[in-house]
Amino acid sequence: MGPAGWAAGVLSLLILLSPLPLAGLGIWLIAVEFPNIGLIFLGTLCLASAWFLRPRRQKPPIRTYGRADLPRFFEMLDRVAAELDGPKVDRVEISTEFDAWTYRSGRQREVVLSIGALLWLSLPPRGRLAVVAHELAHHVNGDPARYDLHGGALKAVQGWIFLLEPGEFEDEHGNRAYNAGFVEMIVNFFLWILVGAVSSVGWCLTRLIYFDNQRAEYLSDALSADIAGAEAVQDVLATFTMAPLIEEEARGAHVSGKVDGTAFLERFAKRIREAPEEMRAKYLAEAEEAKLTVDSTHPPTALRRAFVGLFAGRPVSALAEEIDMEAIDAELAGVIEAAGQRFADTFRRE
């Protein structure tokens, strides 16, 4: 670990310990002139805020699936984890997103894999294997965002911003209004200064772990290419650049009455799968020119595709040929349908 890593660790620890002075202030306010009602109120507010900001383990979503629910799917996950020499997945979430991610959850530090139904349906079998391998590789590649210390600190920064950020004033029509009183304006001014300071601390931590984050993404891409093949990984990255097609289809979507959830998801996924080559090339060119990324923690997609191209022609795992994706799709049918119903509900209009 280099100097930046040590600095990130120290800063993360200080952020995680930041609720303690707030709790101490709360206790002092309550005790200093007890039973002063005003100070008791302020002290209680400080204690409640400190409790809200305490480090917490991420809870799993309400609906996740285990081995008994999806045995074929978990067999694939176990084989990928074994290839990577990483931990097995404990729970699976099927979301409605055009994305995938993994994290540890709960007291038992269970590995949860979240797969977006939209992304899953948009990809061919090798692309799906590449996504799974990429996400599980994050548990073996030293990704600092997966560490409890750094991840918890970033969440604590978000908690501080949530507590400090002033609320917006709205008029009776729901429009933003600026009729706050003089005292409220002064208080909000100082709150925004505090929000800026906290945001700066979060920015510093993000920059300290930035290069390790980038390294982790490239390593995950490389490990994914070893399992699914470089071409499959490049295809997945190209698929992410076509997310605007999902947004375009959403603008014209409307749901009323009973709907087939899987068919509704397929409506969006087909826009990706059946996009002509010239359109795929157009989105790739735009991504390269604008240096687009999947999100702020990822390197530019064009650079990732170029990096993965270095692995073309290398021997890959036999998993891609041995996994029965059709059987897995049949097993996932009910889960995908439920995700599609949830997705369709977001397009219902009163």
What can be said about this structure in brief?
This protein has 16 helices and five strands. By secondary structure, the chain is mainly alpha-helical.
What report would you give on this structure?
The protein has 350 residues and is mainly α. The chain has two domains: 1-54; 71-145 and 211-345, no CATH class. The protein is 64% helix and 6% strand. It is built from 16 helices and five strands. It has helices at residues 3-17, 19-32, 37-53, 71-84, 117-122, 125-137, 148-164, 182-208, 210-228, 230-241, 243-251, 261-273, 277-290, 301-309, 319-322, 325-345; strands at residues 91-95, 100-105, 110-116, 169-170, 176-177. Strands 1-3-2 form a three-stranded mixed β-sheet. A hairpin with a 5-residue loop joins strand 4 (169-170) and strand 5. Helix 10 (230-241) packs antiparallel against helix 14. The longest helix has 27 residues, at 182-208. The model has no long low-confidence stretch (mean pLDDT 86).
Show the helix and strand layout:
Layout: H1 3-17, H2 19-32, H3 37-53, H4 71-84, E1 91-95, E2 100-105, E3 110-116, H5 117-122, H6 125-137, H7 148-164, E4 169-170, E5 176-177, H8 182-208, H9 210-228, H10 230-241, H11 243-251, H12 261-273, H13 277-290, H14 301-309, H15 319-322, H16 325-345
Parallel strand pairs: 1-3
Antiparallel strand pairs: 2-3, 4-5
Largest sheet: 3 strands, mixed
Helix/strand/pairing class, anyone?
mainly alpha
- Uncertain segments: none
Number of strands: 5
Question: Per the principal axes of the C-alpha atoms, what is the gross shape?
Answer: globular
Strand order in the largest sheet:
1-3-2
User: Mean pLDDT across all residues, rounded?
Assistant: 86
Q: Indicate the proportion of strand residues.
A: 5-15%
Measured distance between first and last alpha carbons? 55 Å
The overall number of domains is 2
Radius of gyration: 24 Å
Element-level helix/strand string = HHHHEEEHHHEEHHHHHHHHH
